[in-house]
Amino acid sequence: VDEEEHKDTAAAAAEIQQHLEKQDNIPLNIAITGESGSGKSSFVNSFRGVSDDDEGAAPTGVKQTTSEVTPYPHPNYSNVTLWDLPGIGTTKFPAKKYLKLVGFEKFDFFIIISNTRFTENDVKLAQETQKMKKKFYFVRSKIDNDINAERRKRDFSAERTLTEIRDDCVHSLQGIESPRVFLVSSFKQHWCDFSLLQETLERELPMKKRDALLFVMLNINPEITRKKKKAFQSKLKYWATLSAAGAAVPVPGLSANVDAAVLVGAVKHYVHAFGLDIPSLKRLSVSTGVPYTDLCAVITSPLAAAEITTELLLKVMTQLVGVVKLIAAEEVSRLTLTAGIPAAMGLSFTITYTILNAIISSLMMLTGCLQRVMVCEQISSST
């Protein structure tokens, strides 16, 4: 391979890397607003997959804790930020000037939260948001408190209780055409409408913003994980091409290390998005009541609940017999130097594509196992 071809290969690889980085850094800004005590901060934490007492969590408590517009970036995806806004209608943030004071232009959509009935100020905010051509969504929070309070009654019916709450909320939103109200618990995300809310937000976002939201969505139903798998697979060709570019350099042993280095970044992304990293699993344990050790017992992949390193990935790669044969063939073709490099590039592409695709499928299966655990917990807690 002459110098010009090396330059062309390097330029193509740099362009692909730039494209991937650009895709991973599309900004998404979500405004969370509501009156003091409505559960905004807990919702912000829940949506970001953090506990109220985690470092970097939005402060919660009985006192008014949100007095300024406060950004809370997602811990794994800093391009996604939830903004905890002060309640509308306070002295500092009067209803008429609210949108201007909080800087509405930067937000992609608004989530309006209440833990009781929605107020006149909530309706005004929704109407003004609509005038500004922004989407808004009503969230009735702390549903777990309502269910637990009603459970003490002899004729308790969870379904009837939820219907009554939803109807009451809709009734309080006079002036809003066909209002949608999502009933959620920030501590029991697999209850009620948390999953429906996530899916609705993702579906109604502009196409270029959807993946940004998709990757931070909680894995509380199979449809979400299927969408994540599809999004990951759509980018496999880029990661594989980066690997092939590494194979263009005729140095024996180099490509396997390049492949592993390329894989580390991708696999970390997959593990975080599927909620299989240690912090995510521990939070799942807290929210479901299932012991952390029991959740880990469901997990069979060495990549889950582990630090993703080059050494770990090389170990996983050697466990895939077919991939090992491809790596050996790649190194043999590389030894023929110039004549073998096109073949080595093709093999390197195939190796990386095959490994990543297998990892995506296996991690999705593990997430499905955890979802079944959540369903079992939901059934047992409702009986």
Automatic annotation (TrEMBL):
Pfam entry (one): IIGP
GO cellular component labels: membrane
Region described as Disordered: spans on this chain: 31-71
Xref: InterPro entries: G_IRG_dom, Immunity-related_GTPase-like, IRG, P-loop_NTPase
IRG-type G domain: residues covered: 26-204
Transmembrane segments: 343-366
Record GO terms (molecular function): GTP binding; hydrolase activity
Keywords (A to Z) from UniProt: GTP-binding, Hydrolase, Membrane, Nucleotide-binding, Transmembrane, Transmembrane helix
Family assignment from sequence similarity: Belongs to the TRAFAC class dynamin-like GTPase superfamily. IRG family.
Protein name: IRG-type G domain-containing protein
Organism: Pundamilia nyererei
